[in-house]
Amino acid sequence: xxxxxxxxxxxxxxxxxxxxxxxxHLKSPWSRRKRKRALAPQQWRGFFTPEGKLRDGGVKxxxxxxxxxxxxxxxxxxxxxxxxxxxxxxxxxxxxCIRNQKRREYESLRRDCRRLLKRNGTFKMKETGGMxxxxxxxxxxxxxxxxxxxxxxxxxxxxxxxxxTYIEDSDNPGGTDEFSKRVMEPNDVSDSESSDSxxxxxxxxxxxxxxxxxxxxxxxxxxEVTSKEDSSPSKTEVSSRPCSAxxxxxxxxxxxxxxxxxxxxxxxxxxxQAVVSESRAHRFAEAVGLKDYEHLEPxxxxxxxxxxxxxxxxxxxxxxxxxCQGMSDLLSPIITVMTEDHEAFWCFVGxxxxxxxxFRLDEVGIxxxxxxxxxxxxxxxxxxxxxxxxxxxxxxFFVYRMVVVLFRRELTFEQTLCIWxxxxxxxxxxxxxxxxxxxxxxxLRAPPTDDLLLYAIAASVLQRRKQIIExxxxxxxxxxxxxxxxxxxxxxxxxxxxxxxxxxxxEKI
Length: 509
Prior knowledge:
The chain is mainly α.
């Protein structure tokens, strides 16, 4: 099977429902014997100086998260540091300024989303099932929406030759308004308040759930992150390519389909959102133009509306990526923890600084990661690798879904948060320039790596080497085995094995 055919085949996995023992000679901070408790509230607050700065540049803080994760009660405070929303060396005063600035930036993006939703008006669908036009340049979509499985990603459904920049403004025919500037230059975010009538729109859109006092210090600023690997797509900054009305109209449609189908596993982790009233949930849904949600309970309606609000804003913020199926899987845990949309948005932006290459049309990021997993398996277990070669599966496309949505569908909700926190701690250390020497001083022998998740994915395959070698004679059988991992993995043993692989293979890979 050619690589392009494999890509198309494995993309469909996103529509599906969801011999290693860590016995290396170096002890892992994640081993059952060594694993410590999660970062607790009292310990978290003790890391700060009177000026509100993390002591020792955040090294001990990251060490603690790396070895035990974060207590659920303080995740909303801690995650902005892990995701680059706050610099590790920032003061309380600096974070207060950032919070106000980034709140305005998010609200500006949301005003632009509401303007575009108004312009597109009532959606109608052409008889051919494609995106139509009302004759004035506005995208139209019908009431008979296609089945979820038939919806392709916005980027795949559009021809680059047919894309045209949308600069019409029925409210301002004499020139471009601030929204049109956003469409033309999506990264030029103004801090000024818009004079548009939407500036007084329902505040529920930009601040969904009333914040607790403990969340007041959370802000949203995105640290600029570039990869050390010149060839890596993660080096690509947010594109300056204009966003067309056709792009955005398609993204809106797919976002709404995905939002309505989001499951309810998060509810027990967010009591404040789980008790939302029906009237309030419906108000949020109407404010973002959500439809066909009457069958959902109020918490799921609220969740879907928040997904729509933030994913639409991200599509404008990063039009090169826009929206692709699977991104809602990554955002869902974040909005469960972060109860204000502007904070959740900037945490998601920080997350996507590394994850966005998973959703690029050229697939370069996915192929790079699959290649690393293949190399890990080859160096660690040549016998297993030779068996994969016989099955023409050495390219490891059978773990495609794990890579795209970062284990989200193979782990439980709580397990997902744990492994992501450990991964984010590694990435935060790299951003802050905390290298191998710093880790050795705090008795963690393996250096942080941007690719920890790939080592964990390789570990999940190596843990099943016996079944794969003895029982499976085709890549389809291996694929089914990987699918069956859902809910069956021990996340801390997985991290223990991943750490062992980092210790022994990181330099080679």
